[in-house]
Amino acid sequence: MTSTRPALALAGPVLAGLALLAACSGPTASRDDDPATQAPTAGELRVAVISHGTAGDAFWNVVKNGATAAGEQLGVAVDYHSDGDPARQATLVDNAVSQRVGGIVVSLANPDALKTSVQNAVRAGIPVITINSGSGRSAEFGALAHVGQEEDVAGEQAGRRLREAGRGKLLCVIHEAGNIGLDQRCDGARTGFGGTATTLQVDINNPTDVEARIKGALQTDTSVDAVLALNPQVAVSAVNAVKGASSRAAVATFDLNGDVTDAIKAGDVLFAVDQQQYEQGYLPIVMLKLHHDNANTVGGGRPVLTGPGFVDRSNVDRVAEYAERGTR
Amino acid sequence: MKRAATGTRTAALDRLVARPEVGALLGALLVFAFFSVTTERFLSTAGVATWLDDASTLGIMAVAVALLMVGGEFDLSAGVLTASTALVTAVLATELGWNTWAALPVSLVFALAVGVLNGWLVVRTGLPSFIVTLGTFLALQGLNLGVTRLVTGTVQVSGMRSADGYASAGYLFASTVDVGGTAFPVSILWWLLATAVASVVLLRTGFGNRVFAVGGSAAAARAVGVPVLRTKVALFTTTAFAAWLVGTTNVLRFAGVQANQGIGLEFQYIVAAVIGGCLLTGGFGSAVGAALGALIFGMARQGIVYANWDSDWFQLFLGAMLLAAVLVNNALRRRAERVRP
């Protein structure tokens, strides 16, 4: 070995450091301070949005877009972070508190795990708004407001619509093993549907598996004539599975994306329950901005509901172009 | 590495670079310095508490996994086992109304049984531990979800806070220590303790020598009378014990557990151990290095947030970090082999 070897040995950490330096820096909000058009502001506001979505999840991308757009329009610096593991999501909340952000927006998929971190944030004087799930615990933790959809209500309405479409046997597809909201949707759907309803567990991270399992379930029980997907990616797989199994089942889904709107246009999907999650990103930023500049609160202690809205053949065209650009 | 000091500077340097954790130490210093300089709050007490917290549970596992990897084996079931043990504790305490102190030994016995099963299967069948523990991993994943839904009708077990003995058990595993007005989770202390114990066992005891021996060459170790089965079972059991400790910390701290927790973490443990100088082929590595690897993880994961970067890039950074660490370790090890008498 020559004497240049130690230098090579040091190259590794240096390269790692360069990899760090190469990453992009965060969003900086553009501000136009025209006193005539703006309410007086109480200085710079930075908001951390912390969700339980996995990186690259289409649904949460729309929430992120909503928060980012509101931040740009209102001159609020918005950071978005997500971790599906409740312990690490709690750590991200702690992180935001230690950064002394001006507001925290957090999804409560696992309220118990986040309780301490959220309460610490409130105790530190940071206004917190909960989104998407956990409306029942939001006020207890000291949050300003909750923005989201009541899962059981939405599920019930979806089940009822399928019943009204003359369906008799429902398969409800759960795509995340740890998410309580998905169970609530299926329970609600069962209540609203009134007929026989079974659940099927699939893994959202593996589209092939999703399609194969739904297909298998449809082939095993040919009397199933309705499939309720709880996620647009699963809905697309369900449509393929229905075709592959030559089943006559109607597919309905929660949440939207471009593929789902196309499928609704084509008649492959009956309807989509739209919780308009763009608002779950957008509204909390507005609410925190109002609270910051004007000490306002919104919602009167009740959840601010963003859904359920329904998208079917009657209104799909208008919604489709918005889904295409990632805001529906 | 107990060579007589020759007193020359090169010999001292040689001894230093021959240590497996030196690459991780360099990396940790670099990441620490980088985020301390570029971000405002990384170095505040609240900031330090956050990234140490993030590193602690990963670190406890990484240290145990490092011992196992020095012994020449993998454990892919370690991540899911953290959730399984937590689920056993939570189900007993919340569904059956047991005292937390009665539930904890049961989940510990369950964890140790999984560890013994892993070790026994690996040694007795001669199959790679990669395959055996992959089987355990999948089985536990199904068990977690199936049993949780069967018992609770949902996919989370919550309500630990109302269980008997929660407060006293929580004091031991999930409390916080106040340092200068900032709350530091007690899991950081457990992590330091685990690192110290593992390091002493590995470097200062007969068992540690046997671990290096079975990892270096199981056949040769067997030939000179090292009990391979007992050593490897002890290592798998240690990993399972660490998983129980982390699972207990999580379930008490977060007062509940999700059925899908822990999946995918097993690779993070391995990555942390590898950054810390462990070889995939066994026979070489360090507990302190693995703890440093976990520290790099924690600092990077939270540092990226403090720097207000898009967290989408975290995995890219991690990949670069891993490759860099492996390159460094490789270069240093070659050098170490050259200077060995």
Automatic annotation (TrEMBL), chain A:
This protein's name: Sugar ABC transporter substrate-binding protein
- What range does the record give for the signal peptide? 1-22
Q: Which family does it belong to?
A: Belongs to the bacterial solute-binding protein 2 family.
Main localisation, per the record?
other
PANTHER family per UniProt: ABC TRANSPORTER PERIPLASMIC-BINDING PROTEIN YPHF, D-XYLOSE-BINDING PERIPLASMIC PROTEIN
Listed under GO cellular component are: outer membrane-bounded periplasmic space
Q: Does the keyword Cell wall biogenesis/degradation apply?
A: no
Any one GO molecular function term: carbohydrate binding
Record bears the keyword Isomerase: no
Fetch the InterPro entries from UniProt.
Bact_Solute-Bind_Prot2, Peripla_BP_I, SBP_2_dom
Q: Which Pfam families match?
A: Peripla_BP_4
The compartments listed are:
Cell envelope
| Domain Periplasmic binding protein, residue spans | 48-290
Print the keywords alphabetically. Signal
UniProtKB/TrEMBL annotation, chain B:
What's a single GO MF annotation on this record? transmembrane transporter activity
One Gene Ontology cellular component term attached to this UniProt record is:
plasma membrane
**Membrane-spanning ranges:** 22-39, 51-70, 76-94, 101-123, 129-151, 171-193, 233-255, 267-293, 313-332
Name the InterPro entries on file. Answer: ABC_transp_permease
Q: Which CDD domains match?
A: TM_PBP1_transp_AraH_like
The answer to whether the entry has keyword Cytoplasm is no
Record key words, sorted: Cell inner membrane, Cell membrane, Membrane, Sugar transport, Transmembrane, Transmembrane helix, Transport
Q: Where in the cell is it found?
A: Cell membrane
Bilayer disposition of the protein: Multi-pass membrane protein
Tell me, what does this protein do in biology?
A: Part of the binding-protein-dependent transport system for D-xylose. Probably responsible for the translocation of the substrate across the membrane.
Q: Note the PANTHER family from the entry.
A: ABC TRANSPORTER PERMEASE PROTEIN YPHD-RELATED-RELATED, XYLOSE TRANSPORT SYSTEM PERMEASE PROTEIN XYLH
The identity of this protein, by name, is: Xylose transport system permease protein XylH
Species whose genome carries this gene: Saccharothrix syringae
For this protein's source organism, the top of the classification is:
Bacteria, Bacillati, Actinomycetota, Actinomycetes, Pseudonocardiales
